[in-house]
Every structure is written in structure tokens, then in C-alpha cells.
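Thread: quick sanity check before group meeting

JM: Hey all, I'm pulling together slides for Thursday and realized we never actually wrote out the predicted structure for the chain we discussed last week. Dropping the sequence here so it's in one place. If anyone has concerns about the input, flag it before I start.
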Amino acid sequence: MNNEKIKKYAILIVSIFATILIIWQNSDNETPPSANIIADDEADFFIVKGQYTSFDEDGNLSSTMKSDEAKHYPKQNNAILTKPNLLVYREDSPPWRLTADMGQYDMNDENLTLNQNVVIIRNETLETPWTLKTESLTLLNKSRFITTKQPVTISDKTSILEGVGMNAWIDEKKVELTSNVRGYYAPK
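JM (edit): ok, ran it. Output follows.
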């Protein structure tokens, strides 16, 4: 009986080992998903130290976007940006500056998604300007609307607001933190 248990365990171990070996051999022949995407849609051009300017319907300057590098992918019609730096203009006040480590610009919808160390500065001429920090956000350029579901910190000279999720309407000068909002106020 003791030999029967040993045989069963040996068969079980050999079966497990054989299954792992088969899976391992089959996985070597597969192309990683990211390689499929790259092979399927390779960059057709790139720009170093580029600038893209857009205007509103009346011909007024709407935004200026610069990046250290931009690669265009034709099938998705988007651009992957390194160190994007965007100025969004408003007719009655200083522009908003949006920066990040990485970005993706959808050329069909004119939406810009910023990732990693995202910062928005409003009226950067001030000594301590209004500043927003998050890890990811999307600017819907046509409607001039900004949104994120990530944690956000907003600070200025006298206060700090923290929350999770945000919606901002650039032209209406309205910012809404959507959940877990905490505020600190320290008048000078």
C-alpha cells in the first residue's frame, strides 16, 4: 500500500512536470502581444523638438503643444509624445500649462492623454501659481474639458486640495474634484 501511494505521487509529479514543459515549449513560439501591435502599426514618421499649434473656429490661438519627440502611428492615427508641454489659451486670462513625462495624442478626436508626473499650472507668472498634480489625465481639446480618475493635488499660495478624480472646464474656469476630497487652508 505504501508503494501504491509512492507510485501515485510519482505519476502526479511527472504529469505536472510534463504539463509545465508542454506549456513552456508552446509559449516560446508565440509572439508577445506588444510585438504584434508594433509590427501591425509601425511609426511612419517622428519629430524631434516639434511644435503643434491649433486655432479655434474664429482663428484665435487655442493651444500650442511642444514635445521632445513625437512618433506618429498611421493605423491608429495617434502620436506618442515624450515630454509633452502644452499651453491652452483663454482670451481673458493667462494660459494653462500642462506638462508630463509621456503623452498620447489622438489625431482623430484631438484628445491628449498625459501620463507620469502630470502638472497643470494656471497663471505661471505668479510667485506661487495655482498648480495641479496627478499621474494621468485626458484633455478633450475640442470641448476644452480635462478629466482624470486618478488622485489629484491642487495647491496655491494658501491652500491644498486633495481628491480622487477630477473634471475641469477650461473656459468656465471650473474645477471639480469628484471623491475623497480633503482641503487645507493656511492664510498668510
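AS: nice. The chain has a mean pLDDT of 82. The first helix runs from residue 2 to 28.
JM: adding both to the slides.
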